Amino acid sequence: MKKDTRLLHAGRHPENFHGAVNPPVYHVSTVLHPSVAAMEKSGKTPFEGMRYGRFGTPTTFALEEAVAELEGGHRAVATCSGLAAITGALMAFLKSGDHLLMVDTAYFPTRKFCDDVLRGLGVETTYYDPRVGGGIKALMRPNTKVVFTESPGSLTFEVQDIPAIAEAAHAGGAVVMIDNTWGVLTFQPFTKGIDISIQAATKYIVGHADAMLGTITCATPELWHRVKSSVAAFGQSPGAEEMYLGLRGLRTLAVRLRQHAATALRLTQWLEARPEVDRVLYPPLPSDPGHALWKRDFSGACGLFGVILKPASKPAVDAMLDGYDHFKLGFSWGGFESLVIPTSGHSIIRTASAWEPAGPSLRFHAGLEDADDLLADLEQGFERLRQAV
Ligand SMILES: *Cc1c(COP(=O)(O)O)cnc(C)c1O
């Protein structure tokens, strides 16, 4: 089966649910066990079958099976947000005295977790340049337990050479993780050396900006067991309705994603040619420094990209953003709607690699509106930018 077809079938077992096309929503905390013996038996394999709501229900198992299939991994663990997936995966492999290599372009809350929480627990983080490639070898230490990647990087969209990083990290005995939210469906992590792939399912999997959800897909049963134990120990289980929304979003993910990517390509090509724009950050553009790696490792793209403007005053940029009809100001992305956020100033924190944009920077999400309407919105925005003092 091709990927589009697999997405429709993944995790569905109508035969188990009276023929219902979609897996039912199980609202469960307590699970009744028929005998003490059965209760004791379930304690020996707490993560298999129904034991207690926090460990999973048939809704959880359906979502986990589906996401593991679409990412090409062994098995997945669902969590209550994308960030809980990141922290749950990290906490499964790090303890006091360990060392973590974290990409310098990590999603900001990931960085904050390293600096605020992991440091306090005695885990040392070294940030590395996203373009390090096989050079990561020089940063490996005997106690480096995890190498964390995110490609393209949050806000600045550098593409990482994942196979080269994974090879060097594995030689040093580390587990390699990726935040694969941008590459959902288009980057197959387990064919590129990744051990653990994280999705902020809140974004394209849910796809409608109406639920928080995360997943952690693992390459092997051993890795899965460690991750599941960590997530269960922290109690980071997702809600039943959220999981259902994730499963429902999955069925239309492929068509939505193609539309988001097609619109983003049109917008970015148009933006690149504008006199107000210094650079567009979108790996599918041949002018993007990450284009060759993207072309080698990805089968497609999505609707998220960055723009660096030529120098302009803050009031002018604010006037441009405030007046948009379609690009609304809001965090997150991957829903049906177009969004924009300013990313200048303190939003982009780097400690291991240079980031010196020529002017103010922005992040756009191309939604499912007609691309002509979005282009007109951008054009009127540049008019406001020019007219503001
Ligand atoms: C949004 C996001 C997350 C966090 O997901 P939440 O569900 O909002 O917690 C993690 N990584 C990336 C790249 C994201 O964009």
From TrEMBL:
SUPFAM superfamilies: PLP-dependent transferases (SSF53383). It holds the Pfam family Cys_Met_Meta_PP. Transmembrane segments: none annotated. Its cofactor is pyridoxal 5'-phosphate. The modification N6-(pyridoxal phosphate)lysine is found at residue 203. NCBIfam families: cysta_beta_ly_B. InterPro entries: Cys/Met-Metab_PyrdxlP-dep_enz, Cys_b_lyase_bac, PyrdxlP-dep_Trfase, PyrdxlP-dep_Trfase_major, PyrdxlP-dep_Trfase_small. GO terms for biological process: L-cysteine catabolic process to pyruvate; transsulfuration. Keywords: Lyase, Pyridoxal phosphate. One of its GO terms (molecular function) is cysteine-S-conjugate beta-lyase activity. Belongs to the trans-sulfuration enzymes family. This is Cystathionine beta-lyase. It comes from the Bacteria. It catalyses: L,L-cystathionine + H2O = L-homocysteine + pyruvate + NH4(+).
